[in-house]
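To: structure desk
From: M.T.
Subject: fold request, one chain
Message: Could you run this one when you get a chance? Sequence is below, nothing fancy, just the single chain.
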Amino acid sequence: MFAHELDVPFTLEVVHDLASVDAAAFGGNPMLKVPTLQVGTTSTFGTENICRSLVEHAGRSGDRRIVLAEHLADAVVRSAQELVWSAMLAQVQLRVGIAVANLPANNVFFVKAAAGLTGAFAWLEARLDDVLERLPAPRDLSLLEVTSFCLIEHVAFRPTVSLEPFPRLREFATTFGARASARQTLFRFDPPHKGDTP
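Reply: Done. Structure tokens follow.
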């Protein structure tokens, strides 16, 4: 979404086998995680670093007003961003642990991850309007809004916990999802390459 919003051209490489232990499958990331940004021979690991790099690559890009994590001076907004990062991690743990590794869902590790994910959603649901009001303004794009949207959409796409109790978050995702960058980056299943494990 950041690349689309900033008009930075890119080519997307899909990781088809999340169970792979080959760092090359993850763009060279030794932690075997996505995403990785590759520019020439340089790799940048992690969503936040990649968004920061895309802003740098875009240059002034029409003087877009971009709010990154380092621009957050408000404790409530900082806490919201931290909860979104933690919730994203819990979502991955639940999907990979249960759906990919076929580990038992009643394992305390996954029970706690699901409870934490639900707790993060409840916290964000109760404070979303206040958090958005506290974000620096004016702005064209914020890391918090993009990552919150992506989290909600990923849980809707690959369910782990119910989003039903969180109407304000669902409403936010619907509204934010009307952006062109969101419509260009819908979650979908990419067909695996021949020989890949689904």
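Reply (cont.): The chain has two domains: 2-63, 66-183. Let me know if you need anything else for the meeting.
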